[in-house]
Amino acid sequence: MTVSTVNTDHASAAVPPVARPAVPAHIIRDDAEAIAIAHALAAEFVKDSSRRDRERIWPVAQLDAFSQSGLWSINVPKAFGGPELSYATLARVIEIISAADSSIGQIAQNHLGVVAAIRTVSDADQQKLLFAEVLKGTRFGNAFSEFGSKRAADFETRFTDAGDHVVVSGRKFYSSGALLAHLVPIVALDDEGRAWYAIADRGAPGLTVIDDWSSFGQRTTLSGTVIIDNVKVPKTHLVPGYKGYDKPTADGAIFQIIQVAVDTGIAQAAIDETVHFVRTKSRAWIDSGVDNAWDDPYTIQAVGDLTLRLHAAQALLEKAGLAIDKAVAEPTAETVAHAQIVTAEAKILSTEIAIAATNKLFELAGTRSTLAEHNLDRHWRNARTHTLHDPIRWKYSILGKYFLNGENPPMHAWS
């Protein structure tokens, strides 16, 4: 099956790897510092976010600032020198960044999820090695999903044992962050069909990353096709990811909560844009009897409704983060299921408010808001694209089965 029109016959057609950081990343002290740093970064990221979307400009400097800020090691355990902050804080950080530029917020998702997985499934020696990389500012990308499989968890990429290393071959797509990553975790199966993270160097021979992401939304997530042609990965970097799902762990909920935070960030951005536009550019409706658009009673009601629903999603997001904290500290069937359920609830509300807020923006702001100079459609495009991850129709099913029949959610990265 053809997944790209980009010629991949020659490695020179691929995007070259980027250099590792020259200095170690900052290590955050506490939750308050993490939130403060996120706000400071967001204030810079938002400045050219519309132009980056319109012209599909890679956020190179922004990504370097983000990963060097310490926010990419936010969930590294204290035992290995990391901050080990609450997942409620982690979610808030991603939301703040995503409100400024949701593509940048999404880029961190798989990195943070892999860090969580290493904590869950790796032995102490592997944790020490890989967490040290993260604390230096090394960025994980991802090469998880495959384009033509029947289901998201069906993988054709495999590895073979070659002594002190494994050899991996396959082809991936939807590889957010891979273009500017330093290490690329590849989901590959062993001879028993078990999924591992084979964490390859971005510049490893045989690893080709192609810039062919053509979605109408989330346009600068540094995604694309990853071709894996007999790539050697040392066994020190072979992480048994399957162990995170053969018993109750919070790994799936952690991947999910970051998705939720991206969507609440998009919703926040859309509501902020609506308020700004109505207050500065929109005209009052002809029959309203008021002089200012912000005095229109229907607009007032709509903004109140959108804000209420965003706050509800944010409250569940925080609750989910605290539930994940407990499931990480005390992983049992009960704590893990609770974390999955609250995260699923948050995912439903975040999807619904992201779509509603980005759609309502144009109705409330008026025809002028559709002009190309404003590029406000990027919020709807981003929301519509990103919310396709983990469809909420299946989240409703998870909730119904849990509350009606006592059935715990399935154990995988999409739940």
From TrEMBL:
UniProt keyword list: Oxidoreductase
Enzyme Commission numbers on file: 1.-.-.-
Record domain Acyl-CoA dehydrogenase/oxidase N-terminal: where: 39-137
All copies of domain Acyl-CoA dehydrogenase C-terminal, residue ranges: 258-390
Cross-referenced InterPro entries: Acyl-CoA_DH_C (IPR013107), Acyl-CoA_Oxase/DH_mid-dom_sf (IPR046373), AcylCo_DH-like_C (IPR036250), AcylCoA_DH/ox_N (IPR013786), AcylCoA_DH/ox_N_sf (IPR037069), AcylCoA_DH/oxidase_NM_dom_sf (IPR009100), S04_starv_induced_SfnB (IPR023922)
An example Gene Ontology molecular-function term: oxidoreductase activity
EC class (word): oxidoreductase
Classification via SUPFAM superfamilies: Acyl-CoA dehydrogenase C-terminal domain-like, Acyl-CoA dehydrogenase NM domain-like
NCBIfam families from the UniProt entry: sulfur_SfnB (TIGR04022)
Descriptive protein name: SfnB family sulfur acquisition oxidoreductase
Species of the source: Mesorhizobium calcicola
